[in-house]
Design a protein that fits this description.
single chain, alpha+beta, 5-stranded antiparallel sheet, DUF1877 family protein, 42% helix, 5 helices, 146 residues, globular
């Protein structure tokens, strides 16, 4: 199995990065998180978990095709971007940490290749990336999956 890379970019930069990755190139410069042995499906699962955790469940967290030139590049919908970014600041009434809870739930999904500790690191990084998406700069969160 390959890997999935999640990154912040403009539309044009995302297409260029996807082209490099499709051609087997190394990790291009820029903000991104590379996660081995998962697919876009697991990213969608994370979106659902994050949405539920920040009380935004039921939104459409399905990744969408970006361009017909690359079927490996998908866009993260705005609802998922917000839910992931909210994991950094969301306050719960209990003593639990919502980011930790989401990471544990994500790691517990069937066939996940990593445990809760590694999931927490990934979820933290992805939440920070989501927080870096800036509409005024026309950036978005993208998923490239091998």
């Amino acid at each position: 199995m390959g890997f999935t890379e999640i990154f912040v970019a403009t539309h044009d930069a995302a297409l260029k990065r996807a082209g490099l990755l499709d051609a087997g190139g190394g990790a291009p410069a820029g903000q991104g998180v590379r996660i081995p042995d998962i697919t876009d499906y697991e990213v969608e699962q994370l979106g659902d978990l994050a949405g539920t955790a920040v009380h935004a469940g039921g939104a459409d967290y399905e990744l969408t095709m970006v361009d017909v030139t690359s079927d490996s590049l998908l866009a993260v919908p705005p609802a998922m971007v917000r839910a992931l970014a909210d994991l950094l600041t969301y306050e719960t009434e209990g003593e639990g940490n919502v980011l930790d809870d989401v990471a544990e739930q994500w790691a517990a999904q069937e066939d996940m290749p990593f445990g809760a500790a590694q999931a927490r690191a990934y979820v933290q990084q992805l939440a920070e990336l989501a927080g870096d998406v800036d509409d005024s700069e026309r950036t978005g969160l993208y998923v490239w999956s091998a």
